[in-house]
Write a structure and sequence with these properties.
This protein has 91 residues and is α+β, with helices and mostly antiparallel strands. 19% of the residues lie in helices and 40% in strands.
């Protein structure tokens, strides 16, 4: 079961700011890999592949093991915008 974090929640990058509006993740013993939909104030959107350790955001790249794919796919049912963007990527 995924840990729920408040949505939307703000973010700021050097090139713009906005809100994380969808997030899916899986919980593991030592980390929580996540995919976030970042919607910028100018209307653009990005997917961030990241992870949390002990509840804290980590700035290293997210690695998702093959054993995590089915659970992450199930979590995508609650994030239709992320799922649609990933489908475009997998064409």
């Amino acid at each position: 079961m995924a840990k729920e974090r408040k949505l939307p929640r703000p973010f700021a990058m050097p090139w713009g700011k906005g809100n994380i509006t969808e997030e899916v993740q899986v919980i593991r013993d030592h980390w929580e890999p996540a995919i976030q939909l970042m919607e910028y104030e100018d209307g653009s959107k990005s997917l961030r592949f990241c992870f949390y350790t002990k509840g804290r955001f980590n700035r290293n790249p997210m690695m998702l093991g093959e054993e995590d794919l089915d659970e992450m796919a199930a979590e995508l049912k609650s994030a239709p915008k992320i799922k649609a963007m990933l489908k475009r990527l997998a064409k």
